[in-house]
Amino acid sequence: MSCEPPTPPQELPTGILETFDDFSPKLLRHVARYSKELAEYREREARLTENEENEVVEERSEDFPDDVPSKATITVKEINDNRYYYWQWREGEKIKSKYKGPVDSES
């Protein structure tokens, strides 16, 4: 670990950097966790929207549970340093999820 503070990305607005200067290490870790989760959520939203726009009708795979629509995609979530597969799909404005299994298994 360097003794020098990290160089912020040029894309970050100055106002955010000035706000971070007042944050404790604990609060910065909370911001980092939230930022990562928010980025993953928005990427998933974009994928789901893109899938809806492409609207390619595929044959229903046999590994889809009965209560999961065929438009669902598989997403990996990390919980307590463990990774899990989840089916995810959109119902109106909401994102629905259903547990599929751990990443390291053959789910």
Describe this structure in words.
The chain is an alpha+beta fold and 107 residues long. The protein has helices at 14-21, 25-54, and strands at 73-79, 82-91, 94-102. Strand 2 and strand 3 form a beta hairpin. The model is unreliable at 56-60 (pLDDT under 50). Residues 62-104 form the DUF6788 domain.
3D shape? elongated
Biggest beta-sheet profile: 3 strands, antiparallel
Q: For the CA atoms, what is the radius of gyration?
A: 19 Å
From N to C, what is the helix and strand string? Answer: HHEEE
Helical fraction equals: 25-40%
Name the poorly predicted regions: 56-60
Mean pLDDT: 82
For the terminal residues, how far apart are their CA atoms? 38 Å
Task: Count up the helices.
Answer: 2
- Beta-strand segment tally: 3
The fraction of residues in strands falls at: 15-25%
Strand order of the largest sheet: 1-2-3
In terms of structural class, how would the helical and strand content be classed?
Answer: alpha+beta
What's the number of structural domains? 1
